[in-house]
Amino acid sequence: MFGIVVTQDTAKALRLFSEAGLDTEQYMTAHGQKEFLLDFEKGEITLDEFCRRMAAACGRDSISADEATRCWQGFYAGVDTERLRSILKLREEYHVCLLSNINECMMKLTDSPRFSADELPISHYFDSMFLSYQMHMYKPDAEFYLEACRRDGMNPAETVFIDDAIKNVEGARAAGLHAIHVPTNEDWRPHLAAFLQEQEKTSE
Asked: How far is CA 53 from the centre of its chain?
């Protein structure tokens, strides 16, 4: 979701976590979250437990749920309304679902009217959503993609996955899906249009 649907501000999020006292180099890498941050995104620990473990990692007595939420929501830097509306147009012809590594702190913002200028939550724009903290799975685990396909009755060989992380694109391909890499925060629409055009050529 972040970096494709949502404009991602990694620098701000890292700054907020660092200001809270977290060693971000230890727990947050280009390859994804680690240790208790990963546990939280996989739904293996509650928000209360996350706050306790974050406080311990920061050498503090406590960290509130509000502070933890502010840190996580630092990743959010807005959304392009026209790109969101393009998803609705896609749904007129295709089944469109969201597969995301995410946690409840970020979903409090993204699945609320604060998400978009149209005052609509992210769930409005997709036929279905598969979220790591609810599924207890994490990209690039091949089973995450396959379970999403099973639940929505999608054939992996006829499914296209878009992501800004190479490892997630490779994970999707390993699961038998088509996959498109789009650099973080770049418009995904030309990439998808080029892919679909190429598919049309090869099917002729």
From this structure: 23
> What is the 8-class DSSP label of residue 161?
E
Q: Is residue 128 part of a domain?
A: yes
3-state secondary structure of 162: strand
DSSP SS3 for 99:
strand
Q: How many domains does the chain have?
A: 2
DSSP letter at 164 equals S
Same domain, 134 and 187: yes
Instruction: Using a cut of 0.90, tell me whether the model's pTM lies above it.
Output: yes
1 lies in a domain? Answer: no
pLDDT digits (tens, 9 = 90+) for 121-134: 999 999 999 999 99
- Identify the CA nearest to 142 among candidates 102, 177, 175, 180: 175
* pLDDT tens per residue, range 102-115: 999 999 999 999 99
* Number of alpha carbons in the 13 Å side-chain half-sphere of residue 175: 28
What CATH number does the domain containing 40 carry? Answer: 1.10.150.240
Angle between helices 65-73 and 10-20 (to 10 degrees): 150
Q: Is 128 helix (H, G, I), strand (E, B) or coil?
A: strand
Kindly report the number of other CB atoms within 10 A of residue 163's CB atom.
25
Q: Are 54 and 27 in contact (CB under 8 A)?
A: no
58, 73, 88: which is the final residue of a domain?
Answer: 73
